[in-house]
């Protein structure tokens, strides 16, 4: 199975990782109402939750881009490199979000989004 497909799997579960970070060690965490509890958090826990939410937003276009590039026989090496870059940039994005490094976080977001666009472009040409 190509590396790009493994990257889809990893990207699908990155939001879960950030949710776990937001919840880890939290006082009075209520698993009966986790969304309510997360919405009431502040600081780094709140930012980890926001990274989770953004991860769910970024995933569908990325997965579609990889599958499109694969279906249209784009170069496997390029597809793998772009998919891996996306995953690494999304991990960096989440870490920077939690650390409250907003400018660098935005650059990581832009890079990951650029990878998604590039996957569609290599499929088109």
UniProtKB/TrEMBL annotation:
Segments spanning the bilayer are 78-99, 106-124
Transmembrane helix as UniProt keyword: yes
Q: Which SUPFAM superfamilies does the protein's record reference?
A: MAPEG domain-like
GO cellular component entries? membrane
Q: Which Pfam families match?
A: MAPEG (PF01124)
What keywords is this UniProt entry annotated with?
Membrane, Transmembrane, Transmembrane helix
Q: Where in the cell is it found?
A: Membrane
Q: Which residues form a coiled coil?
A: none
- What is the protein's name according to its record? Uncharacterized conserved protein, MAPEG superfamily
Q: Which organism is it from?
A: Aquisalimonas asiatica
